[in-house]
Amino acid sequence: MKNKVIIGLLAVVAVALIANVYLMSTGGVNGEANPTGAKATFERQAATAGEAKQNAYDAIAAADPTANANRERLDQTQAAKPVGPLTSLKFDESAFDFGTIKQDSENTKIFKFTNTGKEPLIIENAKGSCGCTVPKYPKEPIAPGKTGEIEVVYRPGKQKDMQTKNITITANTDPANTVLTITANVLEVGS
Question: What is the rounded CA–CA span in Å between residue 135 and residue 151?
Answer without folding.
Answer: 5
